[in-house]
Amino acid sequence: MVTKKILKLANATQLTNNLWIGGELDQVNHELAQRQLDELIDAGINSIIDCRMECTDIDWVCEAKPEIDYLSIGVEDTGWFMPDHWFDDGISYALDQIGQGRVVVAHCQAGINRGPTMGFLVLVAQGMDAIDALNLIKKHRPIARMAYAEQAIDWWLESTGAPEDEVIAQIRRIKKWRVENAVMRATEADKTWMGQ
After folding, report:
1. Is residue 169 included in any domain, yes or no?
2. How many CB atoms lie within 10 A of CB 79?
3. Residue 9 · residue 39 · CB < 8 Å
4. Core-most of 5, 79, 97, 110, by most CB within 10 Å?
């Protein structure tokens, strides 16, 4: 059973007892960012996966809170493809940290695509069905789009030796889920918004 914690300052959402997803610490007001970090620590978070390419907080966070373990694996949020090493590095780190009893937050700038996609992959790697993972994220963080979920499941299944027909079937399930739940990838949402 998950003991839910609600944060007032930090842009993070709890998915399980050992996994959170969210957005960045405040980039303008450093005092607020420090209070947000304190709130994350008070919630039990002690490992950070920072998925942002545009900036990182690794230096000041690790100096201010040496008990925090921090992985910076910044990638650009293009809406297209993530490099395989991003999935490799993120999932290896997350599973290792969780295996040590630590609590991980995967975050990006806004907590819409990169951080939630990494959270999705962690849930799947822990044995959760892909659609159940998407539903859990949508329930607790409705703004999440997980633009890279199809690529994440493709990477995961291929890395675990799943047959090609299983990979295709899982990607189709995710695409169907997107339509049924009106959770479009960023590029799809942009086309709809632009009337294409």
Report:
1. yes
2. 15
3. yes
4. 97
- Domain total in the chain: 1
Q: Please tell me whether residue 173 adopts helix, strand or coil conformation.
A: helix
In a domain, 2, yes or no: no
Segment 86-96, tens digit of pLDDT? 999 999 999 99
- The first and second tokens of residue 179, run together, are 């339509």
For position 100, which CATH number holds?
Answer: 3.90.190.10
78 alpha carbon, distance to own chain's centre? 15
* 4 belongs to a structural domain: no
For residue range 114-172, list pLDDT tens digits in order. Answer: 999 999 999 999 999 999 999 999 999 999 999 999 999 999 999 999 999 999 999 99
pTM: 0.93
Q: Is residue 104 exposed (0-12), middle (13-18) or buried (19+ Cβ within 10 Å)?
A: buried
Distances 81 to 45, 55, 78, 102, 140 between C-alpha atoms, Å: 29, 20, 7, 29, 25
Tell me how far CA of residue 61 lies from CA of 26, 66, 108, in angstroms: 12, 8, 15
- Asked if residue 96 is part of any domain, the answer here is yes
Q: Residue 114's domain spans which residues?
A: 12-193
